Sequence to fold (569 residues):
Amino acid sequence: MSTLADLAAPRADYTFAFLDEHAKREVRRSLLKAVCIPGYQVPYASREVPMARGWGTGGLQVTLSVIGERDTLKVTDQGADDSVNAVNIRRFVARMTGVVTTTDTLEATLIQSRHRIPEERLREGQILILQVPLPDPFSYLEPSRSKARELHADSDYALLWLRLYEDLTRRGEVMTGADHPVSVHGHYVMAPSPIPRFDVPKLHQAPHLTLLSAGREKKLYAVPPYTDVQPLAFTDVPFQIERQEGWVCAQSGVSGGFMTELPLPGGGARYVLSDTGLLDKLVRARRGEAVTVGETYTELGPEASP
Amino acid sequence: MTLTLEAAPQLIRVRPLLRVTGLHKRYGQTQAVRGVSFELYPGEVLGIVGESGSGKSTVLRLLNLEETPDGGRFELGETPDVFALTRQERRAVQVHQIGIVYQNPHLGLRLRSSASGNIAERLLSAGERRYGALREAASTSLAASEFPLARMDDPPLVLSGGMQQRVQLAKATALSPRLLLLDEPTTGLDVSVQARVLDTLRTMQRAHQVSMIVVSHDLGVIRTLADRVLVMRGGLVVERGLSDQVLDDPQHPYTQELVHAKL
Fold:
């Protein structure tokens, strides 16, 4: 004779990947819509997660919603796998799902990142999840949200262009440090999250899927594989990436990747590759270990002695 | 006796640029505009006078497509009814064919962007993506409205009232619109500046044969600029005719009061 206890589902403290199934389904539905309309900001519920808003709750919810048991996860913060934010998110997701984690871009199937796109080329089937603080490129330009939505619908981006005009007129160059607005698939202009301008060209016709999510602002959007992504730039003033000529990584000796500048006590600075997963592999390769370094987006300069 | 087309005066032979029929607009309980109709011919300046609350500014806002009317048709050039267009088409008409100068520069300008940027914005809306072309168009347009080019990159916030109006004018005319709307363009400026701005407006009008609608409660402005005039009161047109005729020999009691109320 069966008892009530036999009929009930076995007790579990948490569901797979922390969020309840309805929450995950809601995020996935929004993601599907986002993929169908490249660059369009889809609203979603944005549940509570055990992390403060502003620390990547948007990215975390997307990660938790799309992750499967056979995924391999990499989490980076400003390119680093070992910063507090990255470590906490990686540990949390690993505990809630039991997936394998890695720092190697080539091994990862799911990469959650804050402010960087890895240096090694992403391939088809990989998913890049970017944490976004301000999803709307009109954030500081158009105070009314409903007006901003109308501007998006009309594809009226004169205000964003005006900002570029003002920068060029007053300062002689475009001053968007990170988060340079990009036009996606010819209609919507999106904020690519605060990735440096160095990373923006990596999104154009990329074979991987990019998902962007802002937990506090409750918006997510996507760049599907092989989609046109063009940074806003006047036809006679070309788009420029950060100037880092002559910067050589102090640990691996390469140049050409995106560098972090570390100020030295006596003035001056030294530079290290911002992508620590790649840096780790390069350093191990120097020691003679057998590691596979993937093809990078930008050509890494010849190794000089660090 | 019928008039042959050849014998008809110029204004009758030329098709009007703009024809408004039966314009209505209501705000809650207030009927702001009740059945206003008029035409504007190419190169003509039409003045609209009336006291505060007479509906003259509402007419202008409707013509600038900022608000939707409750009734009426708006024929502009080859477009039979601008009000009936889709949202996108209306926006194209607003950007390419209509320019407006407001009494308050806050409404027409981004005060913190540079003066030249304000003009560039208009061209950017129309799809211009060359920085060099934007600079050139901005300086050409500002020069045409007699703005000192040495200050073209100053934000309107630090400019005087007369200069701000010149920036607005340059912005409104940057794309050579077919219709220029002026809403109390010189009210709030002191008398000498007012005279100079009016002078610029007249010079531009003569040079390019711009079709304008000027709304003002200042009969001096209307007399200086307008060929024809409409007198509005309580949302209705009470009198219309050539400026000289209406202002020198007013027929309607309200117009008579208005003309004689000058200080």
